[in-house]
Amino acid sequence: MTSADDHSVPCPVHDSRSAGHLRIVSGRHAIASPSNYKPPSSFPAGVGQKRGGRRKSSGNTGILGQLGKGVVLGDGGYLLELEKRGYVQPGPFTPEVVLEHPAAVKELHQEFLDAGAEVLQSLAFYASKEKLATVGYANKVRDINRAAVRLAREVAGDRALVAANLSLTWMFDPKDK
Question: Rounded to two decimals, what is the model's pTM?
Answer without folding.
Answer: 0.64
